[in-house]
């Protein structure tokens, strides 16, 4: 019989490392998806998952057993993702300037050999990906987290509000603002494609 999260947490608090391993195996994949969608980078997502579980293990005594362990982990992973993105932004501000306008930028997707999509389709896909990435970067931390949890992870507004530690109305408003900003950012691409 499979142990519940609450039972695993109780055992892990008592020093049972196998119980914590069960929690890692049970929640690792969903935390990776969240981290990847927030950071946009596989290696960063792996680092976020590792850091999230490390923080969760260290703070296991503070976990309120009345709450959902998965929601608590999502909150930790979202915060770790945001911390990493803030650090990345600070590092990029102190590094070399961006390439000049018109300088060729190699897109790894365009470098892959494929007979299926046309060059126009690839160019449009690359532009859409670039616009989405830029628009996601322009969202506030709360908007980005709310959007990823709602639209990529499929959480209901109540779950999003628990992860964000806010009222459901505020979570819903954050999702709405994110959608509006993304829609405005993608509008020129959609108009050009029609």
Brief summary of the model shown:
Helix 6 (119-138) runs antiparallel to helix 9 (168-193).
- Find the count of extended strands (DSSP E, 2+ residues): 0
Helix content: over 70%
The domain tally reads 2
CATH topology of the largest domain: Rna Polymerase Sigma Factor, Chain: A
Total number of helical segments?
Answer: 9
One letter per element, helices H and strands E, the order comes to HHHHHHHHH
Biggest beta sheet summary:
none
CATH H level, superfamily name of the largest domain: RNA polymerase sigma factor, region 2, helix turn helix motif
Q: Assign the CATH class of the largest domain.
A: Mainly Alpha
Can you tell me about this structure?
The structure is a single chain. Helix content is about 75%, strand content about 0%. The protein has about 190 residues and is an all-alpha fold. The protein has nine helices and no strands. About 5% of the residues have low confidence. Helix 3 packs across helix 4.
Any descriptors?
194 residues, mainly alpha, Rna Polymerase Sigma Factor, Chain: A, Arc Repressor Mutant, subunit A, 2 domains, 9 helices, 0% strand
Secondary structure layout:
Elements: H1 5-13, H2 17-39, H3 42-58, H4 69-93, H5 108-111, H6 119-138, H7 141-152, H8 157-164, H9 168-193
